[in-house]
Amino acid sequence: MELREGLVIGAQNHLFIGGCDAEALAREFGTPLYVIDETYLRSACKAFVGAMNAYAPGGVIRYASKAFCSMAMCRIAYQEGMGLDVVSGGELYTAYKAGFPMDRVALHGNCKTPHELTMAIDLGVSDIVVDSRDEIALIDGIAGSLAKRVNVQLRVNPDIDVHTHPSIHTSGQDSKFGLGIDNGEALSAIKAILACRNLRLTGVHTHLGSQIFSMDPYRKAVDRLTDFMVLSAAVAGAQMSELTVGGGFGVRYTQDDPESMCPEDAVRTIAQEVKRQAGRKGLSLPRLILEPGRAIVAEAGVMLYTVSGVKRIPGVCGFAIVDGGMMDNPRPLLYDARYRALLANRCRDRPNERLRIVGRACEDGDTLGEYLLPSPEQGDILAMLTAGAYQYSMASRYNRVPVPAVVLTRFGKAEPIVERERYDDIIRMDRIPNWL
Fold first, then answer.
1. What is the pLDDT of residues 19-29, one digit of tens each?
2. pTM for the complete prediction?
3. Active site positions, annotated
């Protein structure tokens, strides 16, 4: 079985993650368990930052914290020289408490509450990405009340087709994100921003979607965005110095997927296209900003479950029942996501049975997919690979099941970076009215 660097089949045919025996991790920390390989995680950070420094000096890699956010993750991103992209007050507060420099943090999202905007401006974030016309006056008013001038980018919708799941395609005409270029909304918003006393327009922003394996959409995006920068300068006098092309770089989850996009190739291609288009159109070379999230953390993560039982229905199907499910990983239900799965305590056993991996939720649709495995037995440890992105961040307490722990492994050592929830945590915010 071919495994990525940092995943090793070691003693007793056990899977080792960052030098740690997966079965021992399950025993020590319990399951379900999110495991993050710190060395592999940092290598992905270094690859993106190194490529940006090489091909677009002065550019910025902002880690998209929605993929996986914790104080430890923010600390690692800071240590590796990245900025941070946050989309909520909770992510912003996590970064703040982790000691992340606020002047390297950008806030965006399609619904920023007045409280979140006030918090971001008061803390001094680098910039706020405007996502709708109504936000402009709101941000301007809050900035004025705090006697601050705020850097803003405008998120535009370039209407570029990307071949990905409809739920993670964010640049079509019907997307809830951004303002359209073709319908004139984006240019109108530029004029509105320039008319605000407390806003400073620094650039344009887009995010095409996720799980993109071709560079063609990014080239088209750079072409469309630089055209829009030229138009904004000519019509409205806007002088913008930054160009954010988002993230969305594809990651290989299964052997049927293309290879994960190479960070160096992605950054080099986009940087060269920005330079080419700027030169061709007479633009001053803008500072390039990219926002990878999944491409940094997904492959660093492994999810561990304990097989609680196996149910075989002759002539119909078979189920391997695990102690987690849609509560800790809703992606299979949301996007029909698929993974690579193996028995972490029996890695070299020959796969001989196709079973549906089902979770513990009281929902018939709680399934993590069908996989060919060595006939599992009660107590086996099931590992699902490439589990670092959009699993913990989407976890819920459905059926009041506690959210699992997250551990960080490095050189054979493991430490929790998120403690497992307890039952007391679940009821901590409950209240019983006096009349009950």
1. 999 999 999 99
2. 0.94
3. 362
